[in-house]
Amino acid sequence: TTATTNFYCYDPLDRLTKVSSSSATCSSGITETNAFDDAGNHTATTGRTFTYSSTGQLTGCNPSCGTIAH
Is it the case that residue 70 has pLDDT exceeding 80? Predict the structure, then answer.
C-alpha cells in the first residue's frame, strides 16, 4: 500500500479552502476546494453548491443533497 500525503490550506478565518495532493501551499495538485460567503456559510465544495435563506439556513444544494429538514 502506498501512503498518500494531503496538504490542507485554510483562509484567515481558519476555514478549509483547499486540499492538495502535491503542494503545501495548495498552488497545485488541488483535489478539493471550498468556498464561503460573507456570512460564513459554506457555499461550495468540489462538484456541489449550497444555497441559504436570509437567516442562514441551508435551503438547497446542487446536485441534490436529498431532503433538507430544519
Answer: no
